[in-house]
Specification:
Two copies of one chain form a homodimer.
Chain A lengths: L4 H8 L2 H12 L2 E2 H5 L6 H13 L3 E6 L2 E6 L4 H9 L9 H13 L1
Antiparallel strand pairs in A: 1-3, 2-3
Chain A binds a DNA duplex (30 and 30 nucleotides) through helix 4.
Chain lengths: 107, 107
Amino acid sequence: MAHSLDHVFAALADPTRRAILMMLLEDDMAVTDVAEPFDMSLAAISKHLSILGRAGLISQEKRGRVKWCKLEPDALRDATVWMQGFGQFDPVNLDAFEAFLEQELKS
Amino acid sequence: MAHSLDHVFAALADPTRRAILMMLLEDDMAVTDVAEPFDMSLAAISKHLSILGRAGLISQEKRGRVKWCKLEPDALRDATVWMQGFGQFDPVNLDAFEAFLEQELKS
DNA sequence: TGATTACTTAACCGAAAGGTTGACGAAACC
DNA sequence: GGTTTCGTCAACCTTTCGGTTAAGTAATCA
């Protein structure tokens, strides 16, 4: 159990951070590129990324002057297990997630 | 989509609130009984319960002078779907959850 | 009726969250 | 070497969080 549920859930509670995670689902990204779609300073994004890092949800590797952000979905495992203890839900519906994702990125 | 992921994840980020949810897994409880194991005022627990209620994770029904708290696990569904969009995890391991729960309640 | 029980609300407090701007360091470009 | 780019850090500000105590309301008990 690498990272506490406290940190993971707290990281997921912010819409900006959830959006960042969804962006990283596509591919690894540099910090500046992560920041681009948001109406927010680079420093703010940098803070969000460090919170995601503390929760273990992403890792960061610096190559040259560019710092690359990589999704680490395994950090979600403990949280998922915890939540599923409360009942069985439908089998994963990826279509629903895709739709939700599209909706979210649009707003 | 009844309750926002913001509220659900924020509610889950606090260990006291997660412990309350686990207690309610056993059975419905009155507010005073929920508060009993915690080293915290009743007012504090009342606030935690209202946060859980706002997230849709519990419902409360007043019968006489007693207010009963009931787990509403369906509120976790959207959050679970969201998280599972990041990858398939092992099938639910209830035994692991039970062990974790026991550990948690002991500490 | 009077006292007690069950709970919420209000006011307050310190600490943390989420944002800003400005200065800085390190790598890359010309 | 000078300048630009990438990113963090420090200081600050406002709002929210998580707790407290004190007071208030509503139902029950004796």
